[in-house]
């Protein structure tokens, strides 16, 4: 079955630690995205990548980093510089064929203790 | 003005009722629109795409009013399983990036 997977589903981190969230897709999509969702709020774009080996900052990139070495994978690192990292993190992908729909993975819920 | 605005609700309706949500957007260049459904603590899932004046899929109808810059979602014969948050989504235009702008969502609770 084609889809997007994210791991882990739940993640607990101590303050001052970096953590990496995994996102993999087998939809053969060129574009991938990372969003953050806080309670009662809309999704906010952290980083996006429209093609392998290229990525761009979104609206709230500070304290985050990404890589896009393979088409299927777009991991997100939440660094200790991110001031309020506790949130629900969602990865999405889409084609670059003029269709804008994005398809989401199940998300990772990060809690900083 | 926010780029995409929705009434947060909650809309509490009985089973079988008809309910409508509105969403307003600020970018007049937007050409396509989406409604996503998000269940509690889950990922958003695409419900409907709207590319012209509207779209209908079973009990769900989305309508677009470009002059007033709003999109509506109508749900007929509500089911308990329709309880969720509905996100209005507008692709960015004229920004140089292929990104979506999400509304904060309207919460629907269908009651027996």
Characterise the protein shown here.
- The complex is a heterodimer of chains A (113) and B (112).
- Chain A has 113 residues and is an all-beta fold.
- Chain A is 0% helix and 50% strand.
- Chain A is built from no helices and eleven strands.
- Chain A has strands at 4-7, 10-13, 19-25, 31-37, 43-51, 54-57, 64-66, 76-78, 87-94, 103-104, 108-112.
- In chain A, the strands form two sheets. In chain A, strands 2, 4, 5, 6, 9, 10 and 11 form a seven-stranded mixed sheet that branches. A four-stranded antiparallel sheet of chain A has the order 1-3-8-7, with no helix packed on it.
- In chain A, strand 9 (87-94) and strand 10 form a beta hairpin.
- Chain A starts with a strand and ends with a strand.
- The mean pLDDT of chain A is 92.
- By secondary structure, chain B is mainly β.
- Chain B has no helices and eleven strands.
- In chain B, strands 2, 4, 5, 9, 10 and 11 form a six-stranded mixed sheet that branches.
- In chain B, strand 6 (54-57) and strand 7 (60-65) form a beta hairpin.
- Chain B starts with a strand and ends with a strand.
Question: How would the blueprint of this fold be written?
Answer:
The complex is a heterodimer of chains A (113) and B (112).
Chain A: E1 4-7, E2 10-13, E3 19-25, E4 31-37, E5 43-51, E6 54-57, E7 64-66, E8 76-78, E9 87-94, E10 103-104, E11 108-112
Chain B: E1 4-6, E2 11-14, E3 19-25, E4 33-38, E5 44-50, E6 54-57, E7 60-65, E8 70-75, E9 84-91, E10 100-102, E11 106-111
Parallel strand pairs in B: 2-11
Antiparallel strand pairs in B: 1-3, 3-8, 4-5, 4-9, 6-7, 7-8, 9-10, 9-11
Tell me the Rg of chain B in angstroms. Answer: 14 Å
Mean pLDDT of chain A: 92
The low-pLDDT segments of chain A are: none
* Biggest sheet descriptor of chain B: 6 strands, mixed
Structural class of chain B: mainly beta
Number of helices of chain A: 0
Record field, number of beta strands of chain A: 11
Low-confidence runs of chain B? none
Overall body shape of chain B? globular
Distance between the termini of chain A: 36 Å
- What is the 3D form of chain A? globular
Oligomer: heterodimer
